[in-house]
Design brief:
about 20% strand, 14 strands, globular, 13 helices, homodimer, alpha/beta, about 40% helix
Chain lengths: ~300, ~300
């Protein structure tokens, strides 16, 4: 069974890791959000992609969800001594990822081939693909003005009210051949429990990608990133509220209406099921909080079983 | 007394460190060779300048002469995992130097201002200036073809016979205002015991620099990097031989004839004194091997005393 997962950062990486555990070798493709990508010290940083790759490679820092377990901070500390900004925390081993990626991009390679070969170098046997090769930086509109995503997310700790979101340059982005092929060949497509506005949103905004999903014969299911109306991590709940969306699993499902056949949500949100099914998709209740590796694999397995059931 | 030292890498850095010890705060300017500079992983690496700065800052690795004492190798090891070349050894803290420098150069700053402010950030109160702001990469001609300097020097371990040396783009390089001012105001100019062909040679080849030295009122003295006809470190002796020069302190002095008022050489080379004085400069014998910090300061002090004597 060929599976394509659309994923953002930490929450998405956890489910991707569960799928990696239960899907046969080579049958999983993770399409990752690159709207968070930015340049720092002249290096191209791809936070969501790296979180997914490090997680699948088994080297992610379990305490933070991002970065590499046991990484050190010699380079960043020294950069601080030189007066450089150090609010975006990059570890020494992590720097190697950005250095090698940037050098290869500069030499003319596509982000897709760079990311695929680098994740393979770390022993990852799933394909991790950027949603597109073009930089499409997410900009967050706030009362203080428009902010680069990492400015909003990391430096200002998501304290700003969000009045709008745009993906700069998205009109020129294209679905890559690799993403198009993976979607066309998929049996199941999973929208991971990532932020629908700034993680899954940019992926679905790549021109042609939504149509490719709708054209595929795959069963398409999503998983709510909210539990009891709250995000487990990150600002999804506040963003939804600020932008006038329903802050609930129903609100998430509504954003995906017309796209999904099924939606998985936490048992805490059982009251949302009826309204979700009125959107034209089946709802499935289960525990969606992934504390352990076993939780990830169980949620992945249940999600795939749910999808298989929808096909029949 | 204002002192300008022209220096290459390890040997030059040691004497520069001795001068730093004995010259009053703010009165020492070190003009460093940048012919060894090159790009790696998209970063501008300045080996000689960094060796000088790290040495003056008291953080140089005493075992190697280059790099930072106690530095770690997390970034480089991870780059190796990604299949990148790791023959040029860059430590984690060292990477920060190249990252910050490259980011500032990319933003349009001159190498001169970048290097000066970065060395000040490390607490260095001498001015360390690149010989010019333009990249002028040293190319080494060998029977195997022309090699980039670090290819010859580090990767191929100086095993090739050298049939020629050139400094690419040197015709477009210019003496910087900072170097011109330092030379014009100097009381003593010291050519450090560095390789005359690929360390001091590039500095003297910067268009206008030799004339600036000759036009200055400073006493100009050099120190031989050879002891008993051998280089203490590096390929200076083999290079001199390959290129048909006299492999001796006399041979070094001959390369500087017309430029220097005085030349310091090791007691082991006492036999060279008469011939050196025939070149039109005074010769001074002393111990030139710098094993300890005290050796560096003593050689610096003797060299300056010698220069003072030549002025009177």
């Amino acid at each position: 069974m060929k599976v394509v997962a659309l994923a953002g950062g930490v929450g998405g990486a956890k489910l991707a890791d569960g799928l990696y555990e239960v899907v046969s070798t080579g049958d999983l493709t993770v399409v990752v959000n690159t709207g968070d990508d930015f340049d720092l010290f002249g290096l191209r940083i791809c936070p969501d992609a790296d979180t997914v790759v490090y997680t699948l490679a088994g080297i992610a820092n379990p305490a933070t969800g991002w970065g590499i377990a046991g990484d050190s901070w010699q380079t960043l500390d020294m950069l601080g001594l030189y007066g450089e900004d150090t609010w975006f925390r990059l570890g020494d081993r992590d720097f190697a990822t950005h250095l090698s990626r940037t050098a290869r991009l500069t030499s003319g390679e596509r982000l897709t081939t760079v990311m695929d070969s680098m994740s393979q170098a770390l022993g990852v046997h799933a394909h991790v693909l950027p949603m597109c090769d073009e930089p499409v930086p997410t900009r967050v509109r706030t009362p203080e003005g428009e902010l680069a995503f990492q400015d909003y997310f990391v430096r200002r700790q998501q304290h700003d009210t969000v009045t709008g979101i745009r993906f700069e340059g998205m009109e020129s982005a294209r679905v890559t051949p690799e993403v198009a092929t993976a979607i066309a060949q998929a049996d199941v497509i999973v929208l991971c429990p990532s932020n629908p506005l700034v993680s899954i949103g940019p992926i679905l905004a790549v021109p042609g990608l939504r149509d490719a999903l709708l054209a595929s014969g795959a069963v398409r299911v999503g998983i709510s990133p909210l539990v009891g109306g709250r995000a487990l991590k990150g600002p999804a709940d506040r963003m939804l509220r600020d932008l006038g969306h329903d802050v609930s699993s129903f609100g998430i499902a509504k954003l995906y209406a017309g796209l999904l056949h099924g939606f998985v949500l936490d048992e805490a949100d059982a009251a949302d099921c009826a309204r979700i099914e009125e959107l034209g998709m089946r709802a499935r209740l289960t525990g969606t909080v992934m504390r352990t590796g076993a939780d990830r694999a169980r949620l992945a397995e249940e999600t795939l079983a749910f999808a298989r059931g929808l096909r029949e």
